[in-house]
Amino acid sequence: MSDISGTNGDARINGNSATIFVATSPSGAYAGNSSWNIRPYGRKGDEIAMGKVRSGNHFHSFTDVLIPLFLTSREFNGEVQFLVSDFRPSWTSKYRKVLEKLSRYETIDIDKQEGVHCFPNMIVGLKHHKEFNIDPAMSRYSMKDFRQFLRGAYSLQRETAIKLRNREEEKPRLLMITRRRTRASMNEAEIANMAQSLGYNVILAEPDGDLSRFAHLVNSCDVMMGVQGAGLTNMVFLHESAVLIQVVPFGGWSGSQELTLESLQRI
């Protein structure tokens, strides 16, 4: 769990110096002049995550930023403004719908601010429970709440799977997450053909920069299948009764892995 710092009362941040000034009562716990440093990262206690995580990784965007940001700011119902250090326009553009659902205000690139910003309250840091998860015992929210929040952010319409008994003419949709570099399935066409023979409408797709489009694609499917990796993070967009099939290759992670028909049938 990560530690964060919150202030109630007059708080001022001096732009690109990343210095926050807080007025305190002369008789309060922090009477007099004092200072301390805070690392405002959700997983700052995880040295591996802090040292090796790539900013463009979809899984870590959710685990390290989006879920902690939801935990920290959702209770304010949009009446919160984000001050971001190490601002990356490509990242904020990709997850714009999430940020706009959490805040009614423009995100500030604090590293480029030369003036002073004043706020009645301020939270420094992000709440974090565990990788890609929310512990309901530690929060008023759960992963179900987070997924419901995403449904609203991306206007996802589908809530449940199709009922085959009532709509026999419609086939369930199976989305195969494809990979082109590592952990690639060498017989995707064969797998897709077998799934079609079992009655599925099969879609092969690889996640790209258009997250909104891909979220709608995932939400339209009844089953999502793929080799373990960041692409399966998109499971958060599945509807409530969907099925996820995660394929864990034998023999480690080096090189391409073949997903055989026999292993698919066992799953």
UniProtKB/TrEMBL annotation:
Entry-linked InterPro entries: Glyco_transf_61_cat, Glycosyltransferase_61
The superkingdom of the source organism is Eukaryota
The signal peptide annotation in the UniProt record is: none
Q: Which Pfam families match?
A: Glyco_transf_61 (PF04577)
Identify its membrane topology class. Single-pass type II membrane protein
Protein name (database record): Glycosyltransferase 61 catalytic domain-containing protein
Q: In which organism is this protein found?
A: Escallonia herrerae
The chain positions of domain Glycosyltransferase 61 catalytic read 60-245
| Annotated GO CC locations | Golgi membrane
- Carries keyword Transferase? yes
Its subcellular locations are:
Golgi apparatus membrane
List the GO molecular function terms. pentosyltransferase activity
Q: Please classify the protein's predominant subcellular localization into one broad category.
A: Golgi
Keywords (A to Z) from UniProt: Glycoprotein, Glycosyltransferase, Transferase
